[in-house]
Amino acid sequence: MLTISQLASYAGVTVRAVRHYHAKGLLPEPERDASGYRRYDAAAVVELVRIRTLADAGVPLARVQELLVADDEEFAAAVEDIDRRLRSEIRQRQRHRERIAQLVAGESLALPPEAVAYLTRLRSLDVPEEMVEAERDAWILVAAQIPERMAFYMETKERQLDDPNVRDLYRDLAEITQWSADDPRLDQAAERLAVQFEQVPDDAWDQEMLPQDLADLLDGVFLSSVPGARRILARLEQLGWTGWTNIQRLEPAG
């Protein structure tokens, strides 16, 4: 006859595991002998090994008892069901691992590859990081709302970056966003923007339009985070342009 520690050693488990299986009703708990100890026979070792084998195979403890008493057909069906569940869990865990990998990748978590490539290009052009981050946050919002349009938008933005004037404008905007609301240079900055707008074909503005509620949200970020935003927009309106996200040419008066 064996003590609980000897039983555990024979079966390759811990004493704590044996007690856990007792508590779950998987392994019968023998009466204590005259010395006050529980004693186990060879049958208990065999049963404990079977329990351990099933548990190590991923069988939930709630189903171990069912398999211990099942006939061959019932056992095979139960094992197939458990295997199906394990495969599902493996797929789910693999998706979790992919998500964790995306977290490590940073921007690719919330943006498609073409948007990440666009941000990388901005950095390669020495566009200040604060401007890159502002672009990133804006495109995260767009990608969440209209992911099917992201490829088009990124192709357009990449094409724009081929223009040296646009690249210079990005660098300037990083400085402009730090100017106070009454800085006289804001008017000149707005005038430079208007010149850039004039070079864009009229139909391109329509193609690049965002849903108005999303445009309003992005405009709100611009207005709240850039001290000179309202003055820039006011000057642009004097020059015949309205909007910041959805830029539109104003119809001539009269």
Describe this structure as you would to a colleague.
With 254 residues, the protein is an all-alpha fold. It has two domains: 4-103, Multidrug-efflux Transporter Regulator, Chain: A, Domain 2; 107-249, no CATH class. Helix content is 68%, strand content 2%. The protein has 13 helices and two strands, in the order αααααααααααααββ. A two-stranded antiparallel ribbon has the order 1-2. A hairpin with a 5-residue loop joins strand 1 and strand 2. Helix 3 packs across helix 4, helix 6 (113-124) packs antiparallel against helix 7 (129-145) and helix 6 (113-124) packs parallel to helix 8 (150-161). The mean pLDDT is 85.
Strand count, sense and barrel status of the largest sheet are: 2 strands, antiparallel
How many helix segments? Answer: 13
Structural class: mainly alpha
Strand order in the largest sheet: 1-2
Distance between the termini: 107 Å
Would you count the extended β strands for me? Answer: 2
Low-pLDDT stretches are: none
Our Rg estimate from Cα atoms comes to 34 Å
Total tally of structural domains? 2
Report the order of strands and helices.
HHHHHHHHHHHHHEE
Provide the descriptors you would attach to this structure in a database record.
Multidrug-efflux Transporter Regulator, Chain: A, Domain 2, 2 domains, two-stranded antiparallel sheet, 254 residues, 2% strand, mainly alpha, rod-shaped
Give a short synopsis of this structure.
This protein has 254 residues and is an all-alpha fold.
Protein topology:
Layout: H1 4-11, H2 15-23, H3 42-56, H4 61-68, H5 72-105, H6 113-124, H7 129-145, H8 150-161, H9 164-176, H10 185-198, H11 202-207, H12 212-225, H13 229-238, E1 241-242, E2 248-249
Helix pairs in contact: 1-3, 3-4, 6-7, 6-8, 9-10, 10-13
